[in-house]
Amino acid sequence: MLELRLVQGSLLKKVMESLKDLVNDANFDCSATGFSLQAMDSSHVALVALLLRSEGFEHYRCDRNISMGMKLENLTKILKCAGNDDIITIKGDDGGDTVTFMFESPSQDKIADFEMKLMDIDSEHLGIPDAEYQAIVRMPSAEFARICKDLSTIGDTVVISVTKEGVKFSTKGDIGTANIVCRQNTTVDKASLSLCYF
User: Fold this and answer.
1) Residues 51-78: what's their mean pLDDT?
2) Which of 21, 38, 72, 140 has the fewest CB atoms within 10 Å around its CB?
3) Does pLDDT of 49 surpass 80?
4) Residue 160 neighbours by CB under 8 Å, 6+ apart
5) What kind of fold does domain 2-117 have according to CATH?
6) In the prediction, which pLDDT does 189 show?
7) Would you call 150 helix, strand, or coil by DSSP?
8) Is the pLDDT of residue 196 over 70?
9) Closest by Cα among 109, 93, 102, 115 to 7
10) Rg of the chain's alpha carbons, rounded to an integer?
């Protein structure tokens, strides 16, 4: 039996919305430690490793390790039906072929449930090697997304270089070049992204 209750349902919505363009199908693994996903993109360039720890859920019950294969596009369609303030509950049976998503409004005046068919996905778990990084940069994820969006108007690729003074994002395209420098700052937004460089 699997039952997960996430008060911050918008968190799951945002994470899945950002993953659906990178990964088509993935196995969600549920264990005593948390709800996780590990998948490669279709071109085998990017590895996505996601862990929502059990402590982050209001209620977390996972009697035994369960692997649930889901098409992320279908999952995001279902999650779009949840309001940003809704509480999301995920339920599944051991060996079942469906998973249920329940959305509750904060005032409890609206409850919706959706059942989604699971898929059999053959995937192997890849080990992520421990590495020592030359630089670790923490910055707000919204700022990183804005920088990438701004630079995409000029070029297709971005070069990221790190010095003691800050992080430099550079691109070159048919219409010209662009550089954005972010200087070191001690305050870090709660929704931050860590960039690690070898």
Assistant:
1) 93
2) 21
3) yes
4) 167, 168, 169, 170, 195, 197
5) Proliferating Cell Nuclear Antigen (3.70.10)
6) 47
7) helix
8) no
9) 102
10) 19
Cβ contact 6:93 at 8 Å: no
Q: Where are the domains of the chain?
A: 2-117, 138-197
Give residue for tokens 């209750």.
Answer: 5
pTM: 0.73
Q: What is the pLDDT of residue 165?
A: 81
Write b or e for each residue in 158-179: b if 16 or more Cβ atoms lie within 10 A of its Cβ, otherwise e: beeebeeeebebbbbeeeeebe
CA of 67: how far to CAs of 36, 56, 143, in Å? 9, 20, 34
In terms of residues, how long is the chain? Answer: 198
124, 110 contact by CB (below 8 A): no
**Fold assignment, 138-197:** DNA Polymerase III; Chain A, domain 2 (3.10.150)
Here the tokens at position 92 are: 């599944």
Q: What is the mean pLDDT of residues 58-70?
A: 92
Give me the residue label for tokens 């008060």: 7
Q: pLDDT for 11-43, tens place per residue?
A: 999 999 888 888 989 999 999 999 999 888 888
Q: Whose structure tokens read 């409004």?
A: 105
Share above pLDDT 70 across residues of the chain, in percent, rounded to a whole number: 89
